[in-house]
Specification:
Radius of gyration: 29 Å
Helix content: 25-40%
Number of helices: 10
CATH architecture of the largest domain: Sandwich
Order of helices and strands: HEEEEEEEEEEHEEHHHEHHEEHEHEH
Shape: globular
CATH superfamily of the largest domain: Galactose-binding domain-like
Length: 452
């Protein structure tokens, strides 16, 4: 018979618990110290000016203008002299810095913001623009300038007292004129600055004719040696490994001490269930957008693979884009923007069926997958959702609207084709003035509807 349990039988377990308290207490202190260091220190700064990268000057003579630009070096300063002429509708001079070595540019995605120290003298305004030209795999041909993705910020003003202008990199957006010209695929339409071939500072002096001088003391990138996301991922992984390791050690200890006891079996079962529950929770979190609580792209992919009924025809996809969302962030701040995204997702989720799937596609874009729904029903649903947005009370007294694009999955269509059609209809809705619904209806669909 197994020996009866006594108080000394659990002494090794008590020691393990004491060690765990000390260990996890120390790990908590290390975690807090690393997060504090990351927030207040751990700075990484790259100076783009000086002698670090080649510089060049361009002006509007390349496009039929008559403005003349030249560069002068004064120590570490770069001075752009620009003689503006109104011969061109958009006169300018452009200071460029080249980062390209072979096919590799500068990865700016790990930085948070850039700082600009400079001064302006001339008859116009100190307003300028910054362009980051991205060399993107699958899009850019190095010998064709129009294939470089143009990420741009317009209408920046130097501080009148000659101070430092701070420009967060998340302010950059893909230039609409470039989208209209290049017609990029959906995967190339979002901002990406992980392989920047060159940076350009465009000076126009407000279009005032005459001599303008833009002095650039420093153009710097600021970030962290370790990004917050990378640090959090490392800390979470460390905590999970330590927790699972400690649970494994605890499990082995319990198996050794309670091998012949019902209590051992029950306790081990509890530990195993806890581990399985944690694994399921972590797996579920990977499919959910943490801000809005709806599915992310990975979640949609998992749902499509595991639930064949989602692809049962007829099936409709509805692409949604919040109108003028960038201006909400720019005017009211990203906290208000996040509140708008959360409420927007709640309003849309409450207006669809339990069989439908709502996905945050990225930024302010959402996608609804509606099984057993044709394009006409999808258009009615989109109109109802658009109307529901008008009835809501939004943060900061905002009036929030959205544009909708509807497309139906047809026999032998790939899902990507349907998504692209819905995105094209969304673009058509925005071009038509926003706050409206556009749907892709093929000629044979119209004939079938008329026959019905």
């Amino acid at each position: 018979m197994p020996a009866p349990f006594s108080e000394t039988s659990f002494q090794p377990l008590a020691r393990l618990l004491d060690y765990a308290r000390y260990f996890f207490g120390g790990l908590l202190i290390v975690t807090a110290a690393l997060l504090t260091w990351q927030h207040y220190g751990m700075e990484k700064v790259v100076d783009l000016t000086g002698d670090h990268f080649p510089v060049f000057i361009e002006d509007d003579r390349n496009s039929g203008g008559a403005s003349v630009g030249r560069i002068e070096r004064r120590g570490q300063d770069l001075v752009v002299h620009c003689l503006i002429s109104r011969k061109s509708e958009w006169p300018y001079c452009k200071l460029g810095l080249s980062f390209l070595k072979g096919a590799t540019g500068l990865d700016m995605s790990r930085f948070d913001y850039m700082s600009i120290d400079g001064g302006y003298a001339g008859p116009g305004t100190p307003r300028f623009a910054i362009v980051l030209a991205q060399a993107e795999e699958g899009l850019t041909r190095l010998d064709q300038w129009q294939t470089y993705k143009i990420n741009q910020i317009d209408a920046l003003d130097l501080p009148p007292d000659g101070g430092t202008l701070v420009v967060p990199l998340k302010w950059f957006g893909v230039a609409q004129w470039w989208k209209d010209m290049a017609q990029p695929a959906l995967e190339h339409s979002a901002v990406n600055i992980d392989n920047v071939a060159r940076a350009e500072v465009l000076i126009s002096g407000g279009g005032k004719e005459g001599a303008h001088a833009f002095t650039l003391h420093h153009l710097r990138l600021h970030g962290k040696l370790i990004t917050l996301d990378a640090l959090l991922m490392g800390l979470v992984a460390t905590w999970v490994v330590c927790a699972v390791g400690w649970l494994a050690v605890l499990t082995l200890s319990l198996r050794s001490q309670l091998r012949n006891s019902r209590a051992a079996v029950a306790l081990l079962k509890t530990v195993n269930e806890a581990l399985e529950l944690e694994a399921r929770d972590l797996a579920g979190q990977a499919h959910i957008d943490p801000l809005t609580g709806v599915l992310n792209r990975q979640g949609l992919r998992a749902a499509l693979m595991s639930t064949s009924s989602l692809l049962a025809d007829p099936m409709v996809m509805i692409f949604i884009d919040i109108d003028h969302f960038k201006s909400i962030n720019d005017t009211h701040g990203h906290d208000v923007g996040d509140d708008v995204l959360r409420k927007f997702a709640n309003v849309i989720a409450s207006g669809i069926r339990s069989s439908d799937r709502l996905v945050r596609w990225g930024g302010e874009e959402f996608l609804i997958v509606c099984p057993m729904t044709n394009v006409y029903q999808g258009r009615i649903l989109a109109e109802n959702l658009r109307t529901a947005l008008h009835r809501q009370t939004w943060p900061a007294g905002l009036h929030v609207t959205a544009s909708f694009g509807v497309a139906q999955h047809r026999e032998r269509d790939e899902v990507g084709v349907v998504i692209k059609r819905a995105d094209m209809e969304l673009y058509r809705a925005k071009q038509a003035g926003r706050d409206r619904v556009c749907a892709y209806i093929a000629a044979d669909m119209t004939a079938q509807a008329a026959a019905a």
